[in-house]
Each structure stands twice: as structure tokens, then as C-alpha cells.
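Bench log. Compound arrived from synthesis this morning; before running ITC I wanted a structural hypothesis for how zinc ion sits in the protein. Inputs:
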Amino acid sequence: MKEGLTALPALIDPHVHFRTPGATYKEDWISGAKAAIQSGVTTVFDMPNNTPSCTTLQELQNKHALIQNQLEEAGIPLRYHLYFGADRRHYREIPKVKDYAIGIKIFMGCSTGDLLIDDMASLNEIFKMAADHDMLISVHAEDEPTIQQNKKKFVDVQDPLIHSKIRSRQAAALAVEKALNLAEKHRARLCILHVGSKEELSLIRAAKAAGITVYAETSPHHLFLVVDDYLKWGNLVQVNPPLREKEDQDALWEAIRDGTIDYLGTDHAPHTLEEKKLPYGKAPSGLPSIELLLPLLLHAVNQKKIDLNTLVKITRKNIETIFRLPPNDDLVLIDLNRIREVQDEGLKTKCGWSPYRGRVLQGWPVCTIIQGRVFHLDDTHKGIHV
Ligand code: DOR
Ligand code: ZN
């Protein structure tokens, strides 16, 4: 081992959109796996909003076969699990997919793809079935009627900032409240994905205190970007749920430290630069982040925002516990002193850009060990070693 390196348990990213099947021009499991190990990630959970959506046992099996081929071609034994997408026509397949899916994803508000469950009758049935079959439910919690009402207020406005007003904090809080009530009623196990606002945090804190089985995820863009970043990046940082204020970001860091936030998921959602540069309303939501996850977090460790123990909890240990994963020996070696500038050149993601370009970060992974295979990481980011 090189001097000055620290070994950490490899990371799990429980929230990625690797675009197979249907949009492999943005990402596939060859580019996705390469990007993952750059961040010391050796396990990912892939979301179901593909084309076609992953809403049946058959689709899950088809997707699994495609992924296996791509990973073999990549030569990277990435560990992975797939989410089952809830839609009105197929949620009765839940008993069939129990042993094939890591959980059930519900989009309570529309996003990329056509998955959406916004009526109480279906939500009740899905929560009940999930609880009966001991499956975990993960919700994209934004209230669709509120989003649609807000959209009417801003027709013809093209400033990307309105994205955070249309997909308001009230829309997020309303959906979180609804999901928590359903979890309590049906005694379901619930994850609230990509929590971004202090209102959501208050609701989750109260629910945990009341004994509801709820876990909270937040994402790097909520920890490292805020609404002011629209000025520099425009629609490139348009994401669902959207960026919030600095005070929300501070509350999220506090919630990581006090355990209200259980784990991180990147929500790695690659779209091409051409697509992201379209005007507001036409540009898709989502941004790539998986290969910067660990450098961003190590930089935060160097800034004393969190310690290494907490980093390991929120990127590995808590996820293993919540999703009942078997243990493994995968590792990542990190150099906490290495300083590099993030550049687009050399990124492994197929979309080839990063909203963190230009940041100078201290703390980089140098080697990922997955299923006994050692991958020395590219050192393409510019900078100096101190
Ligand atoms: O911004 C987002 N992009 N949010 C989602 O929920 C989906 C994701 C995507 O797949 O592009
Ligand atoms: Zn997502």
C-alpha cells in the first residue's frame, strides 16, 4: 500500500439512473460502472424509469440480462440491485418481484419517464401490498397536483430559477406527509428519497420520533449546490426535486450529523449537454454525479463538515442495514491530502460533463477493490499533490 493512504469500506450508491434500456446514448453499464469505481462505489441500485419502464417481472429479467452483458464487456464486476417501478397497470406484480427487486419505487410527482402514482386509492394498495410482502418502498416525494397548479403561474417564464418555485418546498412537504401517513397506516418500511428542504426534515424527524419506520436519503446536489447556482449553470442544474436555499443545505448537513438523514444516494441522472442546454421547459431534469461523490465528501471531511466515520455510515453501513445486504470486503483507498481540480476531460460518464467542474477538491480515491479485483483509478483531474 502506498504511504499516506487510508482504506475505507467501498461505497454503495443506492440511487442511480444508468439508462439501460432505452437511453444508452446518455449512459450504459459500461460507462456507468467505470464512473462508479472512480468514486469507490462497488454496489449500485438502479431506478426503474427506463424506456420501457421496469414495471413487471419480465422487464426486470430483461434488464438484468442486458446489464450482465454490459458489465462483462466493461470487465468490472459491479454489484447491483434493481428497483421495481410502481405503475397503475402492474403493481399487482409486487408479489412476483419480491425476490428480484431491492424495493418498490413510487414517483408521487412526475419526473423523467412516465412513472407516476398520484391517486390515494393506488397509493393505499401499493403500500399495503409492500407491507404484506415485506418490501421496502422508496418515494420520489413531490405532490403532483401542487406542481401542476404552480406551473400555471409561470407559463412563458424561461428563467431556470422558476423550477424551484414550480416544484415548491410545499409540494415536497405535502408528498412527504402523505407518504409518512401511508407508512404508519400500513406499517410499511419507507425511504424518502433526495430530501432537500428543512420542512421535509422536520416531518421526518417527527415521524422517526413517533416510531414510524422511515429512512431518509439526501443527494450530493442538495449538499453541494443551491438555487444561486442557476446563475452560473442554468438548466444544467435543473433536477427533481429541485435545488433549495443555503439554509436548507445547512439543515441537511446538520441532519446528517444528528442521524435524521440515514444515507446518501447520488441520483446520478445523466443527460447530454445538448439536451440540458435546451430552454427551460424543454431541458430534462437530472445531473450526473457518481464519480465526484467521494471527492466531494472527502473535501467535506477536510472542511470538518463530517468525520470519516459518518461518511462510512451514510455511504455504506446504514445502507447495508436498511436494505438487508450481505456484507462484502470491497474497499477503496483514499488520499486525504491530494488536491485536484474537477474537469470534464477524463470523466467516465457518457454524458461527459459535471456541474462540479472547476472545483478544487482535497481528498481523492486512488484505488478501488471490488470482489478481489484491484482497479487503480485514473488520475486525469488536473492539480497538485501536497
Ligand atoms: O431530476 C431527476 N432526474 N429526477 C428524477 O426523479 C429522475 C431523474 C432522471 O431519471 O433523469
Ligand atoms: Zn432519481
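What the model suggests: Residues 15, 17, 47, 267, 269 surround zinc ion (ligand 2) (CB under 6 Å). The longest strand covers residues 331-341.
ITC booked for Thursday regardless.
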